[in-house]
């Protein structure tokens, strides 16, 4: 079971690397506002803004978040969230639900994308496997 999970982790890390590379042109310094509220599975694997955003979106799946709430919970600036959203949209990992005033509300797209199911599975199975090792 662990071997299958690890192979899925490597595939998904490849997707995350592709997301990051589409944004990278040379050295980009990302301004973080501190530690995220909860350090999830993907942040522990590689602490990048996209991984922090994925952790927050997966944790709050089914709920609507504004860009400001996403930035605050992930511990990154709103500008960093705004810059990384097109990459998450391209892989159909997020969907916009509605607007409240000027705020766009979004949520984790768990229905339309089979990759999202694998992300959720890894996000919740990996910590359980780590606990069973100890």
Binned strand content = 5-15%
What is the count of DSSP helices, taking H or I runs of 4+ residues? 6
CATH topology: Arc Repressor Mutant, subunit A
N-to-C SSE series? HHHEHHEEH
Describe the structure.
The chain has 134 residues and is mainly alpha-helical. It has a single domain, classed as Winged helix-like DNA-binding domain superfamily/Winged helix DNA-binding domain (Arc Repressor Mutant, subunit A), CATH 1.10.10. Helices cover 59% and strands 11% of the residues. The protein has six helices and three strands, in the order αααβααββα. It has a three-stranded antiparallel beta sheet with strand order 1-3-2. It is globular and about 50 Å long.
Short overview:
By secondary structure, the chain is mostly helical.
Sequence-ordered SSE layout with sheet pairings:
Blueprint: H1 2-23, H2 41-45, H3 49-59, E1 65-66, H4 67-74, H5 78-90, E2 94-100, E3 103-108, H6 114-133
Antiparallel strand pairs: 1-3, 2-3
Helix pairs in contact: 1-5, 1-6, 3-4, 4-5
Features of this protein?
11% strand, Arc Repressor Mutant, subunit A, 3 strands, mainly alpha, globular, 134 residues, 3-stranded antiparallel beta sheet
